[in-house]
Design goal:
single chain; alpha/beta; two-stranded parallel sheet; 14 strands
């Protein structure tokens, strides 16, 4: 009876973000709302070239059109709520998840001479369960929309300095593939930013169905988190090895041509006395032999309560030299932003004020 006499106020309607919509989707929106078809191209220009943050700023749309769009849509942009700056110039930005403001995600801007790389997140937390990854320890709190993914790119002060985007932040891209593909389309399509796919790298632990779909749908670079070439040992630190064995992942990759512009790389975090001896290097050579690829060795970045320790510089260099000497191109990736928990595997999406 109380609910009848004291009705609760109706929830505010959820506004559909325009950011992340393709030209085709915007044309469908225009058709549904009685707007001229050419208005979709105008909106693309405002969204992706002029970077407006309000619908009212789309001044070549009629006032009536803007008023109607504002009733059902929003731009989908929001400023970062925090920024930490590393001693090496790396910046870590904190953003709210648009449909759950209590959840936060992080992205990392890495300046390097004339290059500016942004590492973006595609999920709040992650459900892959990798034992060495701080993000995985946070649990899974939902996938990001295409607007949330692109907002990380469009809403940082360094947008105009960006030369590359890597989907290597929080979350597993193949576990949120629809929105990752929508985002990469906007980044590369003529109606969007028009970037070359060579400027974008998408990582994965090896979710085979998603990876195959991605390879068939996109020309962006791919990075596979490998970390141990032995199946049983890899499964101990990466549970997704069980449903998607790394041998099967490599077998899938061999079906594609990597001699052109699209590249495949393997990320290999070095753990002391766990995956860093000659036995592992030799098995890695056997696993990847004949595949046109690169292995990036990554120094493990320690975090509280982890049992893992990083390999020494000497061990990493010896491992690198073994791979190069046996026909597998290998480099050691420079570590950036460790002092602000912005390095590989350290993103936690926590608002520390």
């Amino acid at each position: 009876m109380d609910n009848l006499t004291n009705p609760q106020p109706a929830a505010a309607p959820t506004l559909q973000p325009l950011l992340g919509m393709s030209l085709d989707q915007l044309q469908q929106l225009c058709a549904a709302e009685g707007l001229p078809r050419f208005a979709a191209k105008q909106m693309c220009d405002w969204l992706y070239n002029k970077h407006v943050d309000t619908i009212d700023a789309m001044t070549n749309l009629s006032l009536k059109a803007r008023s109607r769009l504002a009733e059902i849509c929003c731009i989908g942009r929001s400023e970062p709520v925090n920024c930490q700056v590393s001693r090496d110039g790396t910046k870590k930005y904190l953003f709210r998840k648009s449909d759950d403001p209590q959840q936060f995600i992080e992205s990392v801007f890495i300046p390097d001479a004339d290059r500016g790389t942004l590492c973006v997140s595609c999920q709040a937390g992650c459900r892959m369960g990798c034992r060495f990854c701080v993000t995985g320890q946070q649990g899974f709190h939902g996938s990001l929309s295409a607007a949330d993914i692109l907002n990380q790119i469009f809403s940082i002060p360094e947008f105009d300095r960006l030369t590359n985007v890597v989907f290597m932040g929080m979350g597993e891209p193949m576990d949120n593939l629809d929105n990752v593909l929508r985002s990469t389309e906007v980044l590369t399509a003529p109606y969007g930013l028009g970037w070359s796919p060579k400027r974008i790298t998408v990582s994965t632990v090896g979710i085979i169905p998603g990876l195959k779909r991605f390879l068939d749908s996109s020309s962006c670079h791919v990075a596979v988190s490998l970390h141990n070439p032995f199946a049983a040992e890899r499964e101990e630190i990466m549970p997704m090895q069980r449903p998607y064995p790394i041998a099967d992942v490599v077998s899938l990759l061999r079906q594609y041509d990597w001699s052109g512009q699209r590249r495949i790389s393997f990320e290999y975090t070095m753990f002391r006395d766990l995956n860093d001896d000659t036995r592992h290097a030799a098995e890695l050579v056997r696993l990847l032999k004949g595949l046109y690829c690169r292995v990036n060795l990554i120094r493990f970045h320690s975090s509280p309560d982890t049992p893992f320790r990083t390999s020494s510089t000497q061990t990493m260099e010896r491992f690198r030299d073994y791979l190069n000497a046996h026909g597998v191109t290998c480099t050691i990736r420079a570590s950036r932003g460790e002092d602000i928990m912005a390095a590989c595997g350290l993103l936690a999406g926590q608002n520390k004020g």
